[in-house]
Amino acid sequence: MTPTLRARGSGRGRLTLAARAILVAASGATVCLLLLAAHIFVPAPELQLAALWLLGGSLLTTWFAILAWRMPVFENRVLAAIASAWCGGIALAVVIVRWSLVAARSAVWERSAQWLAVTLSFAAGALLLRALLRKRTTSVVARLLSLLSPLAIVVWIIVASLRA
After folding, report:
1. Contact criterion met (CB below 8 Å) for 84 and 124
2. Residues 6 or more apart from 155 whose CB is under 8 A from it?
3. Who contacts 38 (Cβ-Cβ below 8 Å, separation ≥6)?
4. Cβ-based neighbours of 77, under 8 Å, separated by 6 or more
5. Distance from C-alpha of 73 to C-alpha of 51, rounded to nearest angstrom
6. Distance CA 87, CA 89 (A)
7. pLDDT class of 3 with cuts at 50, 70, 90
8. I need a surface site. Which of 6, 29, 59, 123 has the fewest CB within 10 A?
9. Where are the domains of the chain?
10. Is the pLDDT at 153 greater than 50, yes or no?
11. Rounded Cα–Cα distance for residues 96 and 119 (Å)
12. Alpha carbon distances (Å) from 28 to 37, 54, 81, 83, 159
């Protein structure tokens, strides 16, 4: 049998929207790491801020990719792992917000860290929401919790910024 040539863009070679978004997010995270590595040799605070904003953009792209991904129906053990990843992401977002308010840095640095926390909470909330929406037996409370957690982070940032 001789291999057949296919027209470009047809068949298995096409990437889904979620896969394209993951590639963009991975590229952004790679550039973020390169900026942080450059910051080691050239200690400029602007490189750190650019890396934070780029990492936030990568997390926002990850959020979009999760929402575009057609997830399979997971079993309960996998849902428990996703729920623990959600807990870890929300806890890390809370720590980042708390750290940004305590650290004696400029307002630009504070907003950059808060941007990172918000996008992290969006990605973590979307992961749990998409996993729970595919499972018909999950409670409405768990679905609402995954939707309200990013909103709670945003409200906390606004209230804490107004008090400072």
Report:
1. no
2. none
3. 47
4. none
5. 35
6. 6
7. very low
8. 6
9. 15-163
10. yes
11. 11
12. 14, 6, 26, 26, 30
Q: Do residues 97 and 156 lie in contact, with contact meaning Cβ atoms separated by under 8 Å? A: yes
Question: DSSP letter at 103?
Answer: S
Q: Are 131 and 77 in contact (CB under 8 A)?
A: no
Residue 30: CA atoms inside 13 Å, Cβ hemisphere, count?
6
The runs of H, that is alpha helices, within the chain are 17-41, 45-68, 76-102, 107-134, 140-163
Residue 118 has which token pair?
């918000």
Of 137, 134, 139, the residue nearest 72 (C-alpha)? 134
Structure tokens at 11: 């068949």
